[in-house]
Design goal:
single chain; about 400 residues; mainly beta; 16-stranded antiparallel beta barrel; 3 helices; DcaP; signal; Porin
Length: about 400
Amino acid sequence: MGDYNNIKRSIVFSTSSLALAVSLASQAYEFDVGDTTASIYGYVKLDMIYDVDAELPPLGVNAAIPLDSDPRSDVEGHTQLHAKQSRIAFATSTPTKRGELKTVIEGDFFGGGGDREEFRLRHAYGEWNGITAGQTFTNFGFIYAMNRIIDFKPQPGLPQGARQGQLRYTTGGFSVALEDPTNLGGSVASGFTPGGGYVAHADSKDTLPDLTLRYMGEAGSLRYGISGLLRQLEVDDGTDNDSTLGWGINLEAEYAVTPALTLRGGVTHGEGIGGYIEEAPAAPAYVDPVSGDVEPITLTGGTVGVRVAAGPGHINLGYGYATADLDDAIQAGVANAELANETFTDLHLNYIWSPIRNVFYGMEVSHQTREIANGEEGDAVRLQGMVMYRF
């Protein structure tokens, strides 16, 4: 499916936009064990996919789109059906003298890089007295600006809706977390590949955890959030070393105009944030081949969308955009920088409805694009349907 492995690692840990629209825990099967209430919940989901032109993996990954100059772009019509997004979760709730103790363990079948039906861990965390410890969604944004789509891969431009190890403290609408620096952010690059990806520098290292902060609030029908990120990017071969500071900011909002009409959108921007932006086109940073300095890459993205009630369901229209500024890398002579992925876009239109409780159907059409730094482009059209049974 082309050279998209450097991006696929972060993409396969993303959350489903559709899943955020469905409150699973409220449908849980509950039972008591002493003072603890345990619950089991999840869903079975069938995805039915037809790629009109370019063949993409189960996830609609932009980095896998063949360029127009690639003969594969002329091979039309590809079908796949899978149930990899199906998931199951186990949760507990135990009262204590200082508040409720909660734990969650959840998994699905998108393991094996998303190419095989392997069980993988999504969530494994506990919450008590404002402290969250374990693996769960990053604290860096993505909630309100996420458009409801059927494709398991969220649209580019959002903060990455993924899960990673972290220690978080929450009080009211504010939360701060120390997060795993080896997962979402990615590594410093020594160069790029002809397929659009990048080569991780052999001496890239992660010394400090990533720091994320978020505030979420409401004002009438408006819900909003602001998130910040700080991270260190470093290379060290034992003799020479250099580092730089990566930072990012996200603004997002959701506004219920009427009970039947909701608008949402968000903007993400930063230097060296890498995979903290959904489908980051490029590496977080590179090593200048002349000076040996670590130079961060600027990434910018955003999403806009509308959700309209119609009959037994909702029509969802959403657009996502992410781009990398590679001019400095090209001027510095970084290997294959002119062939690196530069800009991704997604446009999704769907209708999702529920004929009865716990049963959901959906139909979706999407148009996705990929552009590399030298101006070459490719695009893909996908038709996707789904059936979901929730328990």
